[in-house]
Amino acid sequence: MSAVHLKKGEVIDLPIRRIGINGEGIGFYKKQVVFVDGAVPGEYVSARVTEVKKRFAKGKMLRLKKRSSHRVRPTCPVYRECGGCRLQHIDYPMQLRLKRELVEEAFSRYTSLDSLPIEETVGMDRPRGYRNKAQLPVRWKSGKVRMGMYSAGSHRLIDYHDCEVQHPETNAVLKAARQVLEELSIPIYDERSHRGGVRHLVARYAFDTGEAQLVVVSRDSRLPREKALVEALIRRLPQLKGIILNVNPHRTSVVFGENSRVLWGKEKVTERLGDRIYHLSAPAFFQLNPVQTEKLYDEVKKAANLTGSELLVDAYCGAGTIGVWLAEGASKIVGMDTVPEAIRDAEYNARQNGVKHAEYYLGAAEDLLSAWVDRGTEPDVVVADPPRTGLGRPLIETLTRVKVSRFVYVSCNPSTLAKDCDQLIRGGYSIKRVVPVDMFPQTSHVESCTLLEWTGSGSN
Ligand SMILES: C[S@@+](CC[C@H](N)C(=O)[O-])C[C@H]1O[C@@H](n2cnc3c(N)ncnc32)[C@H](O)[C@@H]1O
């Protein structure tokens, strides 16, 4: 990567070669890297330089001089402002190819591997309407309750219409809830003064069972007219099976607070994946794209290659979904998560699915696994599905110490995945397979399932 000597305001013509992790086109001008929003690899564009850093510049596209045959017209009316579906201007087969390239690029940047067994991205037949959950901030403005997404990189609300990647039922629940808040004049949170009540609406929809859950996140532990609120919601939304009030009194951008109360109906929503049933509390993590989750978990199953005798660790287990999916193959499953509701859901889900050989623990994977290994426990297979920040050094050190025969790394962030894999390779693991899975069509996010095996040599 060459140092950048472009000037702000300069107009340049350049070819676009790749996409970046935020979906921008990456072009090269006299070997200097220039990010151009909305440009597609294979295109040739004219751009004005808007920002200059040491290693890269940013440019605003002025003219398309050569158009990619993969460019399509985005269908969402707020595609530009929202910034969620950053790849909506690229056809779906090309999106899948570019996501594979993003994973490949991360590995080539952060590891010294010459070649990598990266498979084709596992895509969807219908890459819209796939999300089962939406959480939206609400605000009071000009006598109306407004609800929407934050525009990219700011706290400016873009009014929510029908989001194309959401399931229509989550859209319906959110829109009706907004309307009811307005009709009943329920107090709405004011971010600046930290006063008022409702700050977020969270809707979750179970594709298989058709159950919907609404969480009203409020600064206060009680809302005025709670009874009327519940009555109005259940009258309009027959798919609703539970209404939860979550209390978040903190000045924070974190959505959920620690305490919840059921206002009406069930505490958990029930979803089915394959022949497994999962019960999900409001704060517990559940994959957002249930159609692709089955494919992702099948990849995990293939990679774990259990024979019935293994001790399986499901680190970052959430509601226990992966362990339960793999249960028949393991002699024992041990799961761990930092969210108390997730651990309770995991225990419940194991029981409901007839899994008797699973144990779940509340705590950080890096602490618990290390402590078990110190006490002599030897897991055979570890599955880890961490947040975007990745595994962290303590867990990597434990994995290096314990030398598991198979480590299956499910990641939603190619950069942290590749960095962590680099450490694991130095510690004696080898990468056997990387499968990108498209959990978030139209966006630049890419999930992947990577199989590492202990070989002691750290090569492939
Ligand atoms: C990406 S989710 C995966 C959940 C689950 N495996 C699934 O497929 O639904 C990550 C999970 O890690 C949990 N978590 C975050 N930090 C953790 C840590 N240090 N140790 C254990 N779990 C953690 C979160 O609560 C969340 O449930």
UniProtKB/TrEMBL annotation:
Any Gene Ontology biological process: rRNA base methylation
Source domain of life: Bacteria
Keyword terms, alphabetized: 4Fe-4S, Iron, Iron-sulfur, Metal-binding, Methyltransferase, S-adenosyl-L-methionine, Transferase
GO molecular function, one term: rRNA (uridine-C5-)-methyltransferase activity
PROSITE patterns: SAM_MT_RNA_M5U, TRAM, TRMA_1, TRMA_2
Signal peptide segment: none
TRAM domain sequence ranges: 5-63
Residues the record lists as binding S-adenosyl-L-methionine: Q287, Y316, D337, D385
Family as reported in the entry's similarity comment: Belongs to the class I-like SAM-binding methyltransferase superfamily. RNA M5U methyltransferase family.
Protein name in UniProt: 23S rRNA (Uracil(1939)-C(5))-methyltransferase RlmD
Species assigned in the record: Paludifilum halophilum
Taxonomic lineage from the root: Bacteria, Bacillati, Bacillota, Bacilli, Bacillales
